[in-house]
Design goal:
single chain; alpha/beta; Rossmann fold; seven-stranded mixed sheet; 9 helices; globular
Length: 223
């Protein structure tokens, strides 16, 4: 794994980081590499309210805020930035304003690596809108000075269009952290994490590979 100076993670929802990159994040923080997480919303429109339900539509935003803080702590993230945008509306945000807020954090931190979604290949409109804004912010930077962008993609056509992932991180040593990060987002993940833990105890190779591997595409810049 390449040595980084500063990593900036930008996703729209609490738990986006847990599913796809929490092992990678933990590998960086454990190596002493600072990671900043810019989370654009509180995920207040999340479809789940706990199982059995322990949240309401009114209480969910604050619950997800606390879950996100807990998840960040588990991963070793000391710089968590909750941007306060509204869930499921990122695609309708003023694009220039969103790009400007991302650019200001990039200018402040000067990360060597940015992690976000690959626009057009990440299924949810908030995911794609976030990825597009990140790409636009990074395009403003001279190519020689531009940080690397690791893009998460999981649409059905991503491999057909983008090819195989450029970066494959083996994060099996961080599976316990990954599971704890997922469990921190309890309002959304309770139905998932229990069966996964049980399968791991049984030595299920498929779930070990699923949780223990994180894949990224390096963004293909046009300019």
């Amino acid at each position: 794994m390449k040595q980084e100076k500063q990593v900036l993670v930008i996703f729209p929802h609490p738990d986006d980081e847990a599913f796809g990159v929490s092992g990678t994040i933990a590998s960086y923080t454990k190596a002493g590499i600072p990671v900043t997480y810019m989370c654009l919303t509180l995920g207040e429109m999340g479809r789940n309210l706990g199982n059995p339900p322990f949240a309401t539509r009114e209480s969910l935003p604050n619950i997800r805020r606390q879950e996100l803080k807990k998840a960040a702590s588990i991963m070793g993230i000391k710089d968590l930035r909750m941007m306060g945008l509204r869930d499921k509306t990122i695609e309708f945000e003023d694009d220039n304003q969103l790009v400007s807020s991302i650019s200001s954090v990039i200018d402040e931190l000067k990360p060597s690596l940015v992690i976000s979604f690959y626009p057009g290949y990440s299924v949810h409109p908030d995911h794609d809108a976030t990825g597009r804004a990140v790409v636009r912010a990074l395009e403003k930077i001279e190519k020689e000075k531009r940080p690397t962008l690791y893009a998460v993609a999981f649409s059905q056509n991503c491999i057909e269009d983008l090819g195989e992932p450029d970066i494959i991180h083996d994060v099996k040593n961080y599976i316990s952290i990954k599971l704890d990060t997922l469990k921190a987002h309890a309002s959304q993940t309770q139905l998932i994490t229990g069966p996964w833990e049980e399968k791991l105890k049984q030595g299920d190779k498929e779930i070990l590979e699923h949780l223990g591997t994180e894949k990224f595409w390096t963004y293909k810049w046009e300019k």
